[in-house]
Amino acid sequence: MIAKRTKHLKLGLLPRMDARPRAKGGWTFRYYTYDRKYINLGHDRAEAIKRVLEMERRAPDTGTVAELLREYMASGSFKNELAPRTQDDYIAASKEILERFADMPVDDVKPPHVARYLRVERAKAPVRANREIALLASAFQFGIEHGYATANPCRQVRRNKERPRSRCPSWEEIESFCVTAAKKGPSSHVIGLMAKFIALTGRRRAEFLNLRKTDLGPDGIVVGFAKAKAGDALRRGLIEWTPALRQLFAELAQLDRKARDGKSAIPESMFVFTNRDGQPYTEQGFKALWSKIMGDWVETPGRERFTFHDLRAYYVTVLVGRDENPETHANPATTRRVYDRRRVVKIKGSA
């Protein structure tokens, strides 16, 4: 627990520490034990604090943002209430937050510090900065509820303005991207087929990176929902088979893939989209291959980069254009705001 303020706060003392002025100047530091006895700690403040930390086995970062984040990310609020993808994102975001706030006492963090982080410290990555401050805001809220903090400075600062993406690749672009991927070899070919899979189904990466062969049934493909919160009723989706999906999986099955030794076949796996070890791609591994393929694809003049996220936008745009529900988000308004990238919207007359 972060200690309460003491009358010697200006000296930066820990709870149960006491400081008495010396006749010759300076202080004599003492520790008040739980059985109401004083232990002399000497005249060196730093050494006195170290002794108290050792006696109480407290971490050296007690009272700081570093401790607050550590306690939050070890809590049930973090592990049980957040989706796995959100947890991973927050863990990645903590690096930048700790680099600038780690040693700051929790109560010293004020709205101007948060605003400077958003506008100055992370000016080159404004959208990412919003996600990082979301972590800090959640940690402070946890701190308020558990006695680590008295206020949440993040709540008083507006986030950086985010401009929704408008890029929506065409099916011809997606097809040509897959051709480029196939030319780079079997592993890149798998990434190309994964790109086509999301364009055809609108699923998040987290929803099919671990797709198992047993999820492929006669009626369709069973997938989970990555954005489901802990505690929510378990829901599964069934993607009905289409000729394009059947062709995609047939192409995947025909790939002649070798293990890392370049000779033997990859190990038999329960997963559908696998690396050369027969295991699902990690986020890092997938992103690395995607970046290389995209780099080759955009070398052709006239081509514009698109993200894996833009492929979901393709799917939503196509289905919304047919007046169908894409079932990509729990809130239909969010689906339209983020993913509907139609350049022309049909407007019906009143008569």
From TrEMBL:
Domain of life: Bacteria
Translocase is among the record's keywords: no
Cross-referenced InterPro entries: CB, DNA_brk_join_enz, Integrase-like_cat_sf, Integrase_catalytic, Integrase_recombinase_N, Phage_int_M, Phage_Integrase
Membrane-crossing segments per the record: none
Gene3D superfamilies: 1.10.150.130, Intergrase catalytic core
Domain spans labelled Core-binding (CB): 60-144
Biological process according to GO: DNA integration; DNA recombination
Keyword annotations of the record: DNA integration, DNA recombination, DNA-binding
GO molecular function, one term: DNA binding
SUPFAM superfamilies associated with the record: DNA breaking-rejoining enzymes
Protein family (similarity comment): Belongs to the 'phage' integrase family.
Protein name per its UniProtKB record: Integrase family protein
Organism annotation: Achromobacter arsenitoxydans SY8
